Amino acid sequence: MANITLQEGTFQAIPDKVPTSFCYSTPENPKGLLILAHGAGAGMNHANMKAISDSLNKIGLATFRYNFIYMEQGKGRESAKQSISTVKAATHYGHELAPTLPILVGGHSYGGRMSSHAASEGFDVPTKGMIYFNFPLHAPGKAGDERGKHLLDISLPQLFLSGSRDTFSTGDLLENLITQTQGPSKIQRLDTGNHSYKILKKTRRRTDDIFEEIGSYVEEWLEEIL
Predict the structure, then answer these.
(1) Which domains does the chain have, with CATH numbers?
(2) Which residues contact residue 209 at a Cβ distance below 8 angstroms, ignoring those fewer than 6 apart?
């Protein structure tokens, strides 16, 4: 991709824990920076994470991808408390890298949920909004909205980008829940996408790539909030 600058390194997310990796990817003259957390089972360099980052870079949004500490170490998932602390540390560090850019926070699946818990507790840097890529409202086959009740404590604008076949967010549960949030919330269902953003090519009505679809929705939303 032309005119994209990459900066890679590590940062200390939690004292006494190993440093964890990041990749700061920025286009020329970015309009903002998204602190982007990965899902439960795949790290910051998974193909989907790179595709999300690329789609956002194309619309002028920089990204700061990073690993949770358990992923960095190649161990089993850490406590939610430690993941939430890592989200906050990544947001602080990303802001230090780009202090003049509006900050947004979010992530894919587990990373989005941990980011939302961090937002419900509050960040120590000014934050403009939250973006969730396939927010995991419930486990497959166990429909309910209890995992998302903390979303109601977030006053920031929130954007949910969920596949229409996402088994972690079925029916209208998420749509109904976000009508109750303190700040403005919006959900976009991505045509035939599942929780991993795989599509059904034969029945997908849209002709663009699903990650381009993601970029177009984020671009529209940014015009509303920035």
Answers:
(1) 4-225 (3.40.50.1820)
(2) none
